[in-house]
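Appendix B. Raw example, untouched.
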Amino acid sequence: QEKIIIDPGIGFGKPSEVDLEIIRELDRFCSLGHPVLVGVSRKAFIGDLLDQSDPSKRLTGTIAATSVAVANGANLIRTHDVEEGKIAAKVGKALRRVSAESENRESAE
């Protein structure tokens, strides 16, 4: 059990809207009690959103999607661009922390 990592399978021929929904609902996967891995790097859904067919030109979208995925609970990321991915993950973690602190304050009131 301790060797299980959940990968919700972003990409793999699904419509872009499904990939976006997976990112939005990552907390559902996190609730299963295992680390969640996401691989949004240069994926087709980013190309669709940015109208960019060249995967090598999807870095900005990859950074944004990575930040949101980490903010929504992803513990691990797979990326082509390591330094940029680390920065995106750091921003996502900060957003997650602030969100959790806000929820804790609201529940205490």
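End of appendix B.
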